[in-house]
């Protein structure tokens, strides 16, 4: 399916407090028969005890380990099914069909689902925008080629604890075809990564919400705790850093998708750059850090020579309204990772149309949109891949 590997049987748990626990690997229980024995009565005693001719001695030529080759990871920004987009879920299998070729081309595709999922609960009091989609939203995303969804954002609990209970039930029903990160029954589950195997290469993806201005959108009380369900919230980055470091111990590639930054800003905030540096520090071990929330594109590139790849803002992707040309600019980012290092990036630029779906550009238009995005690298303090 879209060139992907199979979902690993165990999803690695990552602790939100004092530490994180990895998934145990069980022995297969198969024993090799003891050397030199043969079943009674099947081989004459004189042959069973004689040595084979030297020319028939078995060789012990080692079997070479196949090279798994590079892995491609695709990312897109904010998605919801509000307004006129809701009708698309009447037929979820084809809801996002126009953009499925771009979403389904990579080995692993990750997006941000900017909505609560379910039918229960009441809108969060005092919140200006509250979004809720039926569970068929997960069906639509999987059908379009999405593998992993992060819901660590400021809309995951727009319909309160009851709405979140619906969401978690829908998440369980969506597996194993689709994984959801960033929300959970407790902090350990919310910070746990989704883990995928791609031709022998293990990819771990985590999600977290990092409110840059909690006072402007007070959702801090949504944070999952040791004993309560909620969102993976990283106002205190320590639990996230621990979760990423734990994922590093079991994965070849570690990806962190963050909901962060200041809405309307095309340059990353100081809190974004500080957290990106901490996540990509070798002691933590993230290879790729991407994000959304500003509703416009932000710079992307390598954070330092031979360091992690960071894409600060992927903008809107499937969105019901565009306030300006900047918020309509979108695209799919695909990075190539080979032997643990990001070796390439590709940007498929587009603009969100009147129907809420992106329309991908080509030719001179694509070159202009890509150049505009490349220019954002300067204020982000990132360098282009070479």
Automatic annotation (TrEMBL):
Keywords: Signal. Residues 1-23 form the signal peptide. Residues 22-70 are annotated as: Disordered. The keyword Signal applies. PROSITE patterns: PROKAR_LIPOPROTEIN. Residues 49-60 have a biased composition (Low complexity). InterPro entries: Capsule_synth_CapA, CW_Biosynth-Accessory, Metallo-depent_PP-like. Residues 72-321 form the Capsule synthesis protein CapA domain. It comes from the Bacteria. Belongs to the CapA family. This is CapA family protein. It comes from Jiangella asiatica. The lineage of its organism: Bacteria, Bacillati, Actinomycetota, Actinomycetes, Jiangellales.
């Amino acid at each position: 399916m879209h060139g992907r590997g199979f979902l690993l049987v165990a999803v690695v748990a990552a602790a939100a407090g004092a530490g994180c626990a990895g998934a145990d690997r069980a022995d297969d229980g198969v024993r090799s028969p003891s050397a030199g024995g043969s079943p009674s009565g099947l081989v004459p005693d004189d042959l069973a005890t004689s040595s084979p001719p030297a020319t028939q001695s078995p060789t012990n030529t080692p079997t070479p380990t196949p090279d798994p080759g590079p892995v491609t990871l695709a990312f897109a920004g904010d998605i919801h099914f509000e307004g006129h987009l809701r009708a698309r879920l009447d037929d979820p299998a084809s809801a996002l069909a126009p953009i499925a070729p771009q979403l389904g081309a990579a080995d692993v595709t990750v997006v941000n689902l900017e909505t609560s999922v379910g039918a229960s609960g009441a809108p969060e009091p005092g919140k200006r925008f509250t979004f809720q989609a039926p569970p068929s939203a997960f069906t639509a995303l999987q059908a379009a080629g999405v593998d992993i969804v992060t819901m660590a954002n400021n809309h995951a609990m727009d319909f309160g604890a009851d709405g979140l209970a619906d969401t978690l039930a829908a998440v369980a029903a969506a597996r194993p075809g689709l994984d959801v990160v960033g929300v959970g029954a407790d902090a350990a589950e919310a910070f746990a990564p989704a883990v995928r195997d791609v031709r022998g290469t293990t990819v771990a993806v985590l999600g977290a919400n990092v409110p840059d201005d909690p006072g402007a959108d007070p959702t801090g009380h949504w944070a999952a705790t040791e004993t309560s369900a909620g969102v993976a919230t990283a106002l205190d980055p320590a639990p996230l850093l621990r979760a990423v470091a734990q994922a590093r111990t079991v994965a070849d590639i570690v990806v962190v998708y963050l909901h962060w930054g200041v809405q309307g800003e095309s340059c990353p905030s100081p809190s974004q750059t500080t957290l990106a540096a901490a996540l990509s520090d070798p002691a933590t071990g993230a290879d790729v850090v991407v994000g959304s929330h500003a509703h416009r594109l932000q710079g992307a590139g390598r954070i330092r020579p031979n360091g992690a790849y960071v894409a600060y803002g992927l903008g809107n992707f499937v969105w019901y309204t565009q306030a300006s040309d900047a918020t309509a600019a979108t695209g799919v980012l695909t990075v190539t990772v080979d032997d643990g290092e990001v070796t390439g990036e590709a940007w498929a630029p587009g603009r969100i149309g009147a129907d809420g779906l992106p329309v991908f550009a080509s030719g001179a238009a694509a070159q202009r949109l890509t150049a505009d995005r490349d220019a954002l690298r300067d204020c982000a303090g990132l360098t282009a891949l070479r």
